[in-house]
Amino acid sequence: MTSRDRNPRRASARGPAPGPAPLALQPLLAPIDTTPSFKHKAYTALKNAIVAMDVYRSREEIRLDERKLAQDFGISRTPVREAMAQLESEGFVRSVPRRGIYVVRKTKAEVIEMITAWAALESMAARLITKVATDEEIAGLRKMFAAFVDGKLRAHLDEYSDANIEFHQTIIRLSRNQVLIDLAENLFTHMRMIRRTTIGEKDRADRSIKDHMAIIEALEARATERAEDLVRDHALGLAEHVAQYADYLD
């Protein structure tokens, strides 16, 4: 044995012999049940029902009875309660202590704020469309309104309302920007409720289809700045309409 081997201070300086590298920590995950849960089904059904309501035309509060909903769905109250909690976090219902759960009716100021935020998102989507969408995809926007020309708009206002909503959803989708799409998803659900209410007011329908055709022409021409401006002005025009005429929101 050498003096180097007998010196414990020298040996400790070298440290212990290297062992096997530790395994990286991994979360313990259980297999995922791919079938929709009762909570998800209750959430989807409730959300669709709320969006279909004409909540902005009614002055009365709309109360949701958790017990009755569970009975109607044929499930326990727990998934209904969980669905309600998710809807409350998204701004569709509100829980009032000792009173119950009510469908949210946005104020005029809140609606205008939502439309203003939507104008920013949709105008950016229009800019992106001129860069990334195909000619066939843009042509599909024009086909949405083929049934409403030659004076047929007023006779098919409900159908036009649906086409109008699909148009704006498609504008967002064609941007191919997933972050933008995700940001717009919940906001547009609220927007859809107010768009359905306002489309038949004053000359909104006639102005809407003219705006849409101008937007489509700009997109077809890949006129980026014009398309962006037209989409933003179209959305802000709805905000102006709400501010001037939607007294039922106060």
Descriptive overview:
This is GntR family transcriptional regulator. GO terms for molecular function: DNA binding; DNA-binding transcription factor activity. InterPro entries: GntR_C (IPR011711), TF_FadR/GntR_C (IPR008920), Tscrpt_reg_HTH_GntR (IPR000524), WH-like_DNA-bd_sf (IPR036388), WH_DNA-bd_sf (IPR036390). This protein has 250 residues and is mostly helical. The chain has two domains: 38-103, Arc Repressor Mutant, subunit A (Orthogonal Bundle); 108-249, GntR ligand-binding domain-like (Four Helix Bundle (Hemerythrin (Met), subunit A), Up-down Bundle), CATH 1.20.120. It contains eleven helices and three strands. β2 (93-96) and β3 (100-103) form a beta hairpin. α6 runs antiparallel to α11. It is globular and about 55 Å long. The model has no long low-confidence stretch (mean pLDDT 85).
Summarize the helices and strands and which ones pair or pack.
Blueprint: H1 3-6, H2 8-14, H3 38-52, E1 63-64, H4 66-73, H5 77-89, E2 93-96, E3 100-103, H6 108-132, H7 135-143, H8 157-173, H9 178-198, H10 204-220, H11 224-245
Q: Any idea what the radius of gyration is? A: 28 Å
Alpha plus pi helix count: 11
CATH homologous superfamily (4th level) name of the largest domain: GntR ligand-binding domain-like
* Main structural class: mainly alpha
Count of domains: 2
DSSP E strands, number: 3
**CATH second-level architecture of the largest domain:** Up-down Bundle
Largest sheet: 3 strands, antiparallel
Q: Strand-and-helix sequence, N→C?
A: HHHEHHEEHHHHHH
The level of helicity is: 55-70%
Cα separation of the termini: 94 Å
Low-confidence parts: none
The CATH class of the largest domain, by name, is Mainly Alpha
Provide the β-strand percentage band. under 5%
Mean pLDDT: 85
Major β-sheet strand ordering: 1-3-2
**Could you say what the CATH topology of the largest domain is called?**
Four Helix Bundle (Hemerythrin (Met), subunit A)
> What overall geometry do the principal axes of the alpha carbons give?
globular
